[in-house]
Amino acid sequence: MLRNTLLAGSSAANGSFGILSGLPNTVCVQCVRWKRKPLWLGTAKSKLFRIPERPKIPKDETIELLRLHNNYRTLVRSIRHHITEAVIGSQARVDTELRAKQEEEDFVRCVALNNEWNESKAKARDERLAKAREVRREEILRKIIAQEQLAAKQLENIEKTVKRVKEEAITFITEKNIDQAIEDALNNPVDHNWALDLEGTIHRGKYVQPQANEGQRQKRMQPGV
Amino acid sequence: MPKMPWHPASGTGIVTAENAKKVIRLARYGCTNRPFFHIVVMESFKEVRAPPIEQVGTFDEVVNERNEKLVSLNFERIQYWIANGAQMSKPVAELLGLSGFFPIHPRSYMLAWRNRQAADAEAAAAAAAAATAESAKQETEAKDS
């Protein structure tokens, strides 16, 4: 609630500096408390013995007012009681016994309903599981049959192969007939040095045998020559 | 632009002190030189412009063009708060008395008879002044004749 009024020192405006001040401008600060006297100053002299005039209420008026106030208070008290009772009476109250009974009934009903649902659900589940079991059994059987068929086929294939190999085994080169085989190979040299044209004709003996210039090739391949 | 409150003037519904005394009273929500009052339920220790628990009416003190002072009151909520033990300030009790919810407050009666007395005194003074003027006129007429 303090309003500060800053009054700039007039020394600078006059062009002369203050005696004590080192500053060119001195600032005078005055506090003005809402243009009123400070709180600590007390009652003014002129107002010291002033006594405020008391309101003069006639005697009959006083009595009448007292009577009216008494009546008013009584009436208001009774109205208050009435309102309170009316409001409390209008509030919804809970009958605990009835509530407990209703809850019990509700619980029994819920249990019955739950049992019914459980039974129906169990029936449906049994049916579903039986069907699933049947389907699974059939699937397994089908798989077993397929497996057996596959095994039989494989065995047949193996036997076929073995039969074929046994037939071929007569022509195999073994320890007994290896010398004979070598001899046969040396005696019957096979010349694979042939050419093939676009018509598929084989041209044999047109080119020189590899062993004819073997010495020359080896000579060429020697390092440092 | 009036200084608006930071809370909803219709009431926050928040009872900060459960055991504190509740009071139905006027709260000034007008501007400078234009009083306008809300009738609010508040804890009695709260400031005038503190957030009220609930607003239960309004009171426009300034008369309108038909010389009426407008008051609105929510009697249901006032009943509720009275049943919950809320007290009432004197101006609110007077308004409730004039609205017929409560008996007429003694202050209303007092104001009425004082106004009547003042009117009677004024009329008597006017009549006396008229009589003196009449007598003076008659005297001057008698002197002239």
Question: Helices and strands in order, then pairings?
Answer:
The complex is a heterodimer of chains A (225) and B (145).
Chain A: E1 3-8, H1 11-14, E2 27-32, H2 59-90, H3 96-168, H4 178-187, E3 195-196, E4 202-203, H5 214-221
Antiparallel strand pairs in A: 1-2, 3-4
Chain B: E1 22-28, E2 37-43, E3 54-59, E4 71-73, H1 75-83, E5 87-88, H2 90-99, H3 106-144
Parallel strand pairs in B: 1-5
Antiparallel strand pairs in B: 1-2, 2-3, 3-4
Largest interface: A-B, 15 and 12 residues
Number of helices of chain A: 5
Terminal CA distance of chain B reads 70 Å
Element-level helix/strand string of chain A: EHEHHHEEH
List the domain count of chain B as a whole number.
Answer: 2
Shape of chain B: elongated
Q: N-to-C SSE series of chain B?
A: EEEEHEHH
Report the end-to-end length of chain A measured between terminal Cα atoms.
122 Å
Estimated structural class of chain A: mainly alpha
Rg for CA atoms of chain B:
24 Å
Portion of residues in beta strands of chain B equals 15-25%
Quantity of strands of chain A, as a count: 4
In this structure, how is the largest beta sheet of chain B organized? 5 strands, mixed
Main location (chain B): mitochondrion
InterPro entries (chain B): Ribosomal_bS16, Ribosomal_bS16_dom_sf
Keywords (chain B): Mitochondrion, Ribonucleoprotein, Ribosomal protein
Subcellular location (chain B): Mitochondrion
